[in-house]
């Protein structure tokens, strides 16, 4: 093991020890008027640490017998620490997780229903738009396990951020952003010629490459690694290969910041005026605000389209269920009390969340609550017809998909394989069709074989459940298209 890997392993161990020392927070003491329950919540939102401390303080003020300890670590460490916590029976009471869905979380025995009784009343679910609670998405056998936290119209990747200072130095109008791939190259040429800044602060390390990728791919076909129109994993399909070739061209021309950088380095580079353009998502304004880089120093613009025009859109999915009640909690009633408080559309959590411009919530009137200028720009962009579209949902076509593990198991094989293939192609200059062939073949074979085995066991599933040939990439796949 080299020194870097030893250091990484040591840091994960330290994080693990720190998190687990008081995990599954359950304590009682005689102070005050009686016993006090401690709830632990984990996530990786480092920029929200002070916000969470404030939330914990206010909640305990209103519920004196319950305290909240909300902990955040870096995302990469979190993805390893949380599974270890469950393995050692030291998991928190509630945790953030969006890497896998309901089916796998249930299989892993990580979660329990939101309400100790298993069901939630209408006065809770009515906080969300109709259709927010679906069997197989956040409901299983009539029991509700999750709730949409982030909404899916404004929230997501695929926005272009322009540094005002860099654009001014380059003699460019920040309010007239590049709209096409050729425009982007011309803009970069001018930034490179007239400033000391890099043009695009593009992270290209591992999964962080999703930022420039989604900033381009979302206008070509679908920004998923699976194409619901054809029923195939699509990394090596023509639109993806063409888009990645353009990213390779940007690198060759010197328009991408040099080095294999992670998202944190690239975000800081942009905030310091060392790059003029950065692709990212709805969450990044709050990250920059926490670093002292305010929204009056940049402009948000739509992602750039291919020269022939937009032929695709970013996908809207039912993936806003991000906070889950741990199966290992010893205080489900107190946890349910906090969840109801947290999701009060007019409550303290919501008001402070929007005051800090952390993003857009699924159970709130965002038009009313958003005041941050950057978030307002994001909302205006995403509200344009065809900018973000509702993806087809196999579950709504084939209800037995709720019991199927085939797709989840296919994704579990070499989880970061697509990003590794992109990294290899960007470094070597090879076509993405070449470097991505193995991961596509592996996933497709696993999905098709898994569905065949499940069908043989009696489930009504097949590849047809994942194929929607009538879908237009630029339009919502509406509910009337599903069988009655």
Automatic annotation (TrEMBL):
Stretches assigned to coiled coil: none
InterPro entries in UniProt: Bact_solute-bd_prot1, SBP
Any Pfam family hit: SBP_bac_1
Alphabetically ordered keywords of this record: Signal
Signal sequence range: 1-23
Protein name per its UniProtKB record: ABC transporter substrate-binding protein
Naturally occurring in which organism (per UniProt): Nonomuraea guangzhouensis
